[in-house]
């Protein structure tokens, strides 16, 4: 299983959250949204210009900017 940041996944890819950068400016909010260790994440689609990504986390669909996803490490 390979580990990478969430912004590197493509539509249809699924992974599990490994860690969240402790210095991430949105850390608290991302944890509240469900980006906790072990949470399943699926990339639903990319916006036409490539940013943001639509993600499904624990059954909830969210759209987040690529810059915000770089601090989230996942394992496929």
**Secondary-structure content class:** mainly beta
- Annotated CATH architecture: Roll
Strands of the widest sheet, in order across it, are 1-6-2-3-4-5
Task: Give a short account of the largest sheet.
Answer: 6 strands, antiparallel
- Sum up the overall morphology in one term: globular
**Poorly predicted residue ranges:** none
Number of strands: 6
CATH topology: SH3 type barrels
Number of domains: 1
Using only C-alpha atoms, the radius of gyration works out to 11 Å
Write the CATH homologous superfamily: Ferrous iron transport protein A (FeoA)
| Helicity range | 10-25%
Indicate the mean pLDDT.
94
From the N-terminal CA to the C-terminal CA, the straight-line distance is: 6 Å
Helix-strand pattern, N to C? EEHEEEHE
Give the helix tally.
Answer: 2
Q: Strand fraction band?
A: 35-45%
- CATH hierarchy, class: Mainly Beta
């Amino acid at each position: 299983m390979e580990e990478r940041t969430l912004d590197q996944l493509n539509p249809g890819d699924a992974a599990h959250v490994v860690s969240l950068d402790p210095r991430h400016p949105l850390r608290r909010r991302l944890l509240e949204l469900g980006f906790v260790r072990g949470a399943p994440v699926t990339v639903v689609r990319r916006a036409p210009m490539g940013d943001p990504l639509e993600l499904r986390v624990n059954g909830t669909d969210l759209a987040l900017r690529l810059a915000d996803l770089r601090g989230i490490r996942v394992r496929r």
